[in-house]
């Protein structure tokens, strides 16, 4: 197959980790006889520096026309004082919205080799952690009306959280279908004891649950879910939740596996190209030192193979190669353990490619 991939390396460690994912994609192409071509596109701070905006319309058009998009990370202290509408993060939200990427899949899987890197006790981890967070990505408080106005001599800010039935239903369907392909358990996270958006969320999810009698469905309040993730993560299979709750819970869940540097994600639309990115940020403190963990981005590339290109065998091969490299004792600094060999970001990418 021939595929055109837009590479949005971005800021901080973004360029380092995406280069390693491209190296792995090239190895996949060679092994399985595919042709991947890449178009490098500026996004975030580097685009602000060059063009004055976090992504240009032309570059947005290129992303829409690609077969898939691979993103590193955006942002950094250099651009923290930019006005709200040209902040680096704005580009990320704009790409999500423009490409209609409403479904964000964030798998949280503990590689057995890294069990001791998890902050949880072995008896809590039990037989492992393998859950999938399905986060709604183009609605809710991230995209509602916002304002800061002066009232009675002080500033008053507001962010509106809004969900319509169709937005809830389409993410709900993705979650139920995902549960069907896994262990058929779905927990829907909300704050229905307080929020109207959550009460509507729950109503729509219950309607769907009736259509999927083979999936065992539960409601869980977000505060309880945050607690249960630490207390007994093995109870979860698929978790579905709205945009901001999903942002918070996915960072929490990622830590259960030892390092946020390991976690990939896929953002999917109804039909167009998907975007794939590690869930970690730009980590400006370690940028340019070749010490970042590229595995989250490499595993994101593997999700791209699986979800956008239908290359399940190739995706499995990448995941097996990652496991094999960990099994052989190679670690980046963030997951370093006694008795292991510490390697750089580029060396890690090289090892995974060779293993393929
Ligand atoms: C994420 C990030 C983004 C988000 C930021 C960078 C806007 O934290 O993908 O989880 O909040 O969605
Ligand atoms: Mg986040």
Task: Give the structure's gist in a few sentences.
This protein is α/β, with parallel strands linked by helices and 356 residues long. It is 41% helix and 21% strand.
Distinctive features:
Isopropylmalate Dehydrogenase, 10-stranded mixed beta sheet, two-stranded antiparallel ribbon, globular, binds magnesium ion
Describe this structure in words.
41% of the residues lie in helices and 21% in strands. With 356 residues, it is of the alpha/beta class. It folds into two domains: 1-109 and 260-356, Isopropylmalate Dehydrogenase (3-Layer(aba) Sandwich); 119-257, Isopropylmalate Dehydrogenase (3-Layer(aba) Sandwich), CATH 3.40.718. The strands form three sheets. Strands 2-1-3-12-11-4-5-10-8-9 form a ten-stranded mixed beta sheet, sandwiched between helices. Strands 6-7 form a two-stranded antiparallel sheet. Strands 13-14 form a two-stranded parallel sheet. Helix 6 packs across helix 7 (196-211) and helix 8 (222-231) packs parallel to helix 9 (243-256). It binds 3-isopropylmalic acid (IPM) and magnesium ion (MG). 3-isopropylmalic acid is lined by residues 89, 92, 247, 279.
């Amino acid at each position: 197959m021939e595929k055109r991939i837009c590479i949005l390396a971005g800021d901080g460690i973004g360029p380092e980790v995406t280069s390693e994912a491209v190296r792995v994609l090239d190895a996949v192409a060679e092994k399985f006889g595919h042709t991947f071509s890449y178009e490098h596109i500026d996004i975030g701070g580097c685009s602000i520096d060059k063009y004055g905006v976090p992504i240009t319309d032309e570059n947005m058009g290129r992303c829409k026309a690609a077969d898939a998009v691979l993103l590193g990370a955006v942002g950094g202290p250099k651009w923290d004082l930019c006005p709200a509408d040209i902040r680096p993060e704005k580009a990320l939200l704009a790409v999500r919205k423009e490409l209609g990427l409403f479904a964000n899949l964030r798998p949280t899987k503990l590689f057995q080799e890294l069990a001791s890197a998890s902050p949880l006790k072995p008896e809590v981890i039990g037989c492992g952690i393998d859950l999938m967070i399905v986060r709604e990505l183009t609605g809710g408080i991230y995209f509602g009306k916002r304002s800061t106005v002066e009232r009675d001599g002080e500033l008053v800010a507001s962010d509106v959280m809004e969900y319509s039935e169709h937005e809830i239903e389409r993410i709900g369907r993705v979650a139920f279908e995902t549960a069907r392909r896994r262990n058929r358990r779905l927990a829907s996270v909300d704050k229905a004891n307080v929020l109207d958006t959550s009460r509507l969320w729950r109503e729509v999810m219950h309607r769907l649950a009736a259509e999927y009698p083979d999936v065992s469905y539960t409601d869980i309040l977000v505060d309880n879910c945050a607690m249960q993730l630490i207390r007994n993560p093995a109870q979860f299979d698929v978790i579905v939740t709205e945009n901001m709750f999903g942002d918070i819970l996915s960072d929490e869940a990622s830590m259960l596996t030892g390092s946020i540097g390991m976690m990939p994600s896929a953002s999917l639309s109804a039909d167009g190209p998907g975007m794939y990115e590690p869930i970690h940020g730009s980590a400006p403190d370690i940028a340019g030192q070749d010490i970042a963990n590229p595995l989250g981005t490499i595993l994101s590339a593997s999700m791209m193979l699986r979800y956008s290109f239908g290359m399940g065998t190739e995706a499995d091969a990448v995941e097996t190669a990652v496991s094999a490299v960990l099994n052989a004792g190679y670690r980046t600094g963030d997951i370093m353990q006694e008795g292991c060999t510490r390697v750089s970001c580029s060396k890690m990418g090289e090892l995974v490619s060779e293993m393929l």
